Amino acid sequence: MNTAEKSLHYLVEKWLTPDPEARIRVVRFGHIREDRTRYVHVEASASSGPRAIFFFRHEDGCWCVFPPRIAQPSMTGYRLAA
What we know:
There is one protein chain. With 82 residues, the chain is mostly beta strands. 11% of the residues lie in helices and 32% in strands. It has one helix and four strands; from the N terminus they run αββββ. A four-stranded antiparallel β-sheet has the order 1-2-3-4, with helices on one face. A hairpin with a 5-residue loop joins β2 and β3.
C-alpha cells in the first residue's frame, strides 16, 4: 500500500464518507500519554446517522484505524561456543 493510501484524508473518506452528503468534523485530537502517539477522533453526520472513528499516527508517518504497538522490553538469549 502506498503512502497516499495511509494518509488521514484518504482514511477519513474511505471509512466515513460513503454518503456524499456526509458532513465531517474533527471531534478531538491530541496525544496518548504513554508514548506521545498522535490520534484524531473524526465524526461523520449523514442521513443514515452519525458515525465516528479514531485514527492513530504511526512512527512511519502513516495513519491507521488501530494504535501502534507500544515497544516493550525484550530479552534475547545467546549460546556461547565453548
